[in-house]
TrEMBL record:
The lineage of its organism: Bacteria, Pseudomonadati, Pseudomonadota, Alphaproteobacteria, Hyphomicrobiales. It comes from the Bacteria. This is Cytochrome c. It comes from Neoaquamicrobium sediminum. InterPro entries: Cyt_c/b562, Cyt_c_II.
Length: 161
């Protein structure tokens, strides 16, 4: 029988992934922009991050059917920081949707002057670590959020075989 905590974590991760996909499709124009759907997706991510996410990984809750590693216990401060960044970025995306009720505005999108960030393996050390997301285009905030997801998964998750 599956552990209910693991099932809860997996459901949260699936909700975050689906919400991120919704936002990605709007930025990539595979889906028409809808501010309510954009905001709803950002709020889903926000609600499943920060303390809500951290609380799903109590000390010693690893093994079994979980892909989470005990590295979360050893590097709890880093795990908490990544989860809090996720919440901050999602809140900023939600705010951006409030300010753009009709369309993706030019100031929401990354221009040629904004670098694309790190690699798929996570954020490059020191890049935008202390930058205020409210000063960045929403699309850049979204990419930084995805880098945090990739960094967290690279360090704290085992691939299922």
């Amino acid at each position: 029988m599956d552990d209910p905590l693991v099932a809860e974590r997996q459901a949260s991760m699936k909700a975050i992934a689906e919400a991120a996909r919704t936002i990605d499709w709007m930025f990539s124009r595979r889906r028409d922009y809808d501010s309510r759907a954009f905001k709803g997706a950002a709020e889903t991510i926000r609600q499943h991050s920060g303390e809500a996410l951290v609380s799903q990984f109590p000390l010693g809750s690893f093994g079994g059917h979980s892909g989470a590693t005990a590295e979360i216990d050893r590097s709890r401060e880093e795990f908490v920081a990544l989860s809090n960044h996720l919440e901050t970025f999602a809140a900023e995306l939600s705010r951006a949707a409030d300010e753009a009720p009709d369309r993706l505005t030019d100031d929401m999108k990354m221009g040629d002057h904004v670098p694309l960030g790190g690699s798929l393996l996570g954020r490059r050390p020191g890049r935008d670590a202390d930058a205020d997301p409210s000063t960045m285009p929403a699309e850049h905030v979204f990419h930084l959020m995805l880098e945090d997801c990739a960094s967290c998964h690279a360090k704290f998750r085992e691939k299922a075989e």
